[in-house]
Amino acid sequence: MAAALVDVLLERLATLALDKVERELKLVVGVKQEIQNLTLKLEAIQAVLEDAEQRQEMQASVKLWLKKLNDVSYDMDDVLDEWITIVLKHQLEKQEKRSAKALVTIKKKVCFPFTSSCFRFGQVNQLFLRHEIAAKIKELNERLGLIDQDKQRFSFQNITVPELHQETTSLPNAKTFGRDEEKKLIVSKLLSEGSEGNEVPLIIPIVGMGGLGKTYLANLVYNDDRVKSHFDTRVWVCVSDPFEETKIARAIIKGLDKNKKTNNSDTLDALLQCIEELIQGKKFLLVLDDVWTPKSSQWEELIKPLRNGAMGSRVLVTTRKEEVVTLMKATTQSIHLKELGEAFCLSLFYHSADMDESSVSKEFKDIGLEIVKRCNGLPLAAKTLGSLMRNKKKIHEWRAVLNSKTWELTEIQQDVFRPLLLSYHDLTPAIKRCLLYCVTFPKDYVYNRNRLIELWMSQDYLNVKESKGKIAVGQNYFEDLAMRSFFQDIEDGIEDEYGNITCKIHDIVHDFLQYLTKNECLILDASERRDVSKDEVHHLTLAHATESDSLKSFLPDYKKLRTFTAIESSYNSIGPIFELITQLKCLRTLILSDPGLREIPKTIGGLIHLRYLDLSRNYGLKELPRALGSLYNLQTLRLVNCIDLKKVDVRRLINLRHLYVRNCGASRSIKGIEKLTDLQRLDEFVVPGGDEGNKLEDLKGLNQLQGSLAIEIGRNPNRAENAAAIMVNKAHLLHLKLVFSEGDDGKIMNGLEPHPSLESLYIHGYGGSAFSHWLSSLHCLRVLTLNYCNCGVLPPLGKLESLESLFIHLHDGVRKVGVEFLGIDDGQTSSSSSIFISFPKLKQLEFMLVSSWEEWVGVENNNITIMPCLSQLTLEYCDYLKALPDFLWKTPLQKLHIRASPILRDLYRQGIGEEWAKISHIPTIKIEGVSE
Q1: pLDDT tens digits along 396-423
Q2: Dist CA 367 CA 346 (whole Å)
Q3: Phi and psi of 738, rounded to 5°?
Q4: DSSP alpha helices (H): ranges in 151-213?
Q5: Mind giving me the DSSP string for 423-466?
Q6: Element (H, E) at 612
Q7: The whole model's pTM is what?
Q8: Is 626 a member of any domain?
Q9: Are residues 110 and 190 in the same domain?
Q10: Which domain does 377 fall in, by range?
């Protein structure tokens, strides 16, 4: 942890050496020398930190030394960040004064609600401020000097920090090793209709020590196709420690009621009553994952409403505790997981190392076997160590792992922690900090890759010395952690429509990270009070806050907080304590999504270090204070689903890089967005009709945008005539969604030509007479959706050489789909000798609600190949389509789905349709009417 902090400090000090900041330093006698001394001491300490962090597990004195270094590093970071922020503010004010010289008769008043006198920039106050910070730097220098001297007694070694592995090898595919019999047994218990004494629900515990794969096995069973179809409803709940009936009941309701229409009361009785109503007469499967030690009375309360389910209902429990099985009276149904056999562990080890077990040389095989023996049959340990070896290609690297002193640690909490510690120490300091930050969130939390990277960025964990942008650095860190199996449940790296990837952290890995961070990251239930040193806590997650909680009595004690997150809090629970939150002056990250906030106090402007602010899903929030403009360091602002918020002013947020306003009223009026030329993420931009609000031309200079962007264009949009060429220079934007109001949008669409690197495009409601020419020249486009468009002719999409998925929905006016759609020119349809491939990579094609479509034809030419990769074709509600073209039968089609298309249904009906013989070779065919 300390190593990454020292890296951040050295970067801060390097920033102070820049010309524009150094001019401020010269105004304070001696401070420049103090900063040089700080830099030298930190560089000397940095050289030995890797050795210190590895030795702290065995030497308590080293751990104490690192704690002192951490404390002074945090304080130093705050002081340096404050100084840089003040300089930024001063420079911005100078620029504004220069801009206002022509308007000297107008008195310009800007609100900066900082409580400290250090933010009033009269000459006297500036002088006082400079000397105040200089005094703080001198005091910190003295503290660091004592720590630097103290390090001499430990004789630390200078160990080279490992490099970030940049190999682009793929993640190992999910595979089961040695649990087939257990899976069969559990599935048979779930699918059997009866139970002992007709018990409802039947409780089936999976018991075993941490790291044996209980959750993984339960997940395999939960997602088995036979299990999915057998139960009316399935719910997965992560329980963890402590056993909280109210929290579990809420989670069960959330899983049962996807539409969230049911009771969300805070009282347990009301929640249990809701569960009873939701499962009345239903055959359900409930998984309670990671159950520890509930009291008998707690379990009886929770199980009571579950008895209202239908015969055949099951509760699958994973637990490390045998006493849990006894308490649940389920000893006859329990499955005891044993350690994995050595052969299976070895196979899992090599699979995770991305190595072919049969081709490993004897020298490596002998060492690999010795390493696997130290896994003690724990699959998580074998997987972790295998992942560690993926980038170790030399025999001495394997010997170093085998002979590591980490195996000798005797006070470590669990056996599986030793392999995890080995893998952890193999990370760079910055990646270690990123990993440890993940424990800020509770077990079973679903992490979003993009959001996680922005959170790391808010804590300055990403290495800005890299030539690449911080987002790219964060993506590398994420991939490295995923490669080493610290993350799990990653869907093969598949991104959703917003470019997001989600993952989870194994509960044992979560325990391990808590072991490393101790009290630095604290997850606290609002009703819970823990005896911890408040100054040690830097990241606090508060769960289940209610309006009646006495939060005012303890929250101000956490003065060193850098992250404050409120999760699963009741409506209007945070508003009364917001003023207290704004007194936490060290905050970098503030997440207050969904607690029913109606007002943000102007004192939020005093959080000068704040980088990340999430106010999403505060539906009653109508206005943001002007003081928000004082947050010069703010990098991420999330206002998703703040539907009553009418506008947001970002003119003074000079460091803003990520702005999220999806389904927010403010997406229609983002004042000053055209000034944010370094903005990297913007999820939604609405251009309303008329003269008020956003203009399309506001996007023109935002050429650093990355990921995805949705643009909604109203009828007669504001200043549409200046919309030309606003998207063509956005080379990093990969996903674009264009939503038009009805009307002739041709001129506007012509001006929205994206950069050729675009990968996915969604067009909705386009009403022009023809699609723009640029649509058929997007040669990197992989996914295209045309939804509710009214052009009578489809564009020549067959020319798109990278297109893999094409969806055409609700497309009125099209009567014939022919050679123009295939991208074939008139001269190619006859005797042309030129070779042409139409839709060369298309795999998935879907037509839905193309109501006037009658004819679909191809072309007969041996030099023209059509859709050579097509594997899936879907046609729905194509009422008048007479037949499918013959070229389809030459494609490698694997799935054909025809629904609510009566002519096609009769023509290709199985066995009796006139054209059944043409499609009978396709492996999967589904033809159905409307009711089906």
Answers
A1: 999 999 998 888 877 676 778 889 999 9
A2: 11
A3: -115, 120
A4: 180-191
A5: HHHTS-HHHHHHHHHGGGS-TT--EEHHHHHHHHHHTT-S-TTS
A6: strand 612-614
A7: 0.85
A8: no
A9: no
A10: 342-425
